[in-house]
Amino acid sequence: MMKVSQREKRLLWITGIAVLLYLPVDLVILPWWDSRSEEAEKTRIQEKRLVNYQRILKDNGAFEDEFPRIRQQVADLEKGLLDSDSNSLAGAEIQGLVRNMAIGIGLVVHSTDLLAEQKVNDQYTKISTRILLRGSIDHLVSFLVALETGQKLLFLEEVQIDPTHQNVPKEKKIRATLTLSGLKYSEPVQSSENQS
Hints:
single chain; 5 strands; 4 helices
């Protein structure tokens, strides 16, 4: 039989004690520590949520005070919508508005084309027209200013400007193709029972 030296006995004892200490640490203490860390992180997240909710509830009264002002702003903006109830009448309305505005400023209207309407959402539909104009660049600028300051909310979506005299730099006559749009209240959807 082999004799175990004193040094080897100590090494075995230290190894045994290390294993006995390692097992409870690995099986009990470390999992408990990890769960505490996770719980602490969850608690911090919940604390941040609670602070945010408290801030929102505290500010809720301030938002309620703003609602009448915001409603008034929306009502003022909606006065700039096209007046016509149907999409076809709104198309004629926007073409008439744009044509009359352009002629009043001194531009020559060559053509206007009504484009397909687009439903923006359940409440609004966008009505668009493309207009071909000729005149001076100064008149076009005045026309664009009139669009900006007019009673109806019309917005410019596309612009193409070409000079009418390529070789005469002092000539300020241009040909412009503009796509303009306006909004109107959407037509109410009729159910299939009402249509039959």
